[in-house]
Structures
1.
Amino acid sequence: MPLKGGFARNIRRAAALGCRTVQIFAGNPTAWQLPALRQKEIDERRSLLAELDIYPLVIHAAYLVNLSSSRENFLKSSCRLMQETMERAALLGSPYVVMHVGSHGGQGFAAGMELFVSTLLRELENWPPEVTLLLENTAGAGSSLGGSFEALAYILEKLGPAAPVGVCLDTAHAWAAGYDFSSAHGARSSMEQLFKAVGREKVLALHVNNVNAPRGNHKDRHMHLREGLITPAAYAALLSYPWPEDLPVILETPEMGSDWDAVNLADLRAYADAGVVEEEERSI
Ligand SMILES: [Zn+2]
């Protein structure tokens, strides 16, 4: 949901649309600081989420954050903002903070990955344990890290199995990085690659955006579900896995806050239902 209009108004609108989960930014996604929040506002937000049965609330970290920056001040600011974001999530009762893996900024992939892992290992110690960090796969453009499932797997392995870190799969980014979601078969083989790399239990959220740039060209161009190159059959296959009941499935489609939200949500539900039908037919 957009920040504009305020938390309560947007959460009420999401609930009225039939959303069961919501993703928000904790603050301006291009600012280094979160707006202050008084205890009264925190209590109000928590009780509104409970009243409207929205769970989980997912927090997306600011785009600025880069835990693999070789610029000392930039890295420091990123760590500070991540600390604040994790704490804000805990205050709001949000179990997940989604973050992009970052970019190596000229130091090379290997050095960027090492820096990312060592930064995370250090920072994790100070974060509230009830909040899990979700690493989102990226479109893999330029110096950005985390475009491949193997890169995510490498990070998770270095952090160790007990680290409160999982994965958020973004279908549009996966497509841009070259993974096939043009058919049910393509989606299944892409998902098998992901599960094999990171472990199925580590995939804790989905960003189900569609995309209208050719596969593998690293362009992060989100599109409405019915207007992109990822097909309904691929969505049905993706959604038909035995996911946990409270898996957040999130739309980051264009024109957020417009009538498109209801259209995208209805399409998503139809794809999910189609997947269930297909599974039932296969089991007969
Ligand atoms: Zn995303």
2.
Amino acid sequence: MPVKRELIPSDAVPSELILQHCSDILMHPNMQVEASCKQHGTTSVLAHSAAVTAAALIVARDLRIPVDVRALARAALLHDYFLYDWHVGSPENKLHAFTHPYRAARNAMRDHALTKHERFIVRTHMFPMVPVPPTSREAWIVCLVDKAIATHETLKGFARRDARRHTS
Ligand SMILES: [Fe+2]
Ligand SMILES: [Fe+2]
């Protein structure tokens, strides 16, 4: 099926687009698992995924990039749907950076029946750690926005730890 793309209106609100396209995902019980697992610093996987989704929609809206809004929003929200705590020391978790896009895509298929394109966006978001390039514009947006948000969350975590160390 060809991808249907459109410009996101300049007055569109990301949180409203997320509710329009992803309310079933947000209501799923596994979102509680995402809320309880840390991603970067003190940020939960759910907060990280919501931030990536909102930022991806803002990038497409403000740079006037026609996108498949539904695929962009759903795949961004599910891009880290791996559903375990990767900070726990285990042999599998050592490979987390390379393997979690595949785990996320499998879980998302099981719980939310992703389209082929949405699955592709989830699987390629860790490029170049995952050696398959994100060849659609939606996949590139999620891949790049994820790195920017992850860097920001990680640095925020370092800054917090540093501030604690110097005040105690
Ligand atoms: Fe990820
Ligand atoms: Fe991520």
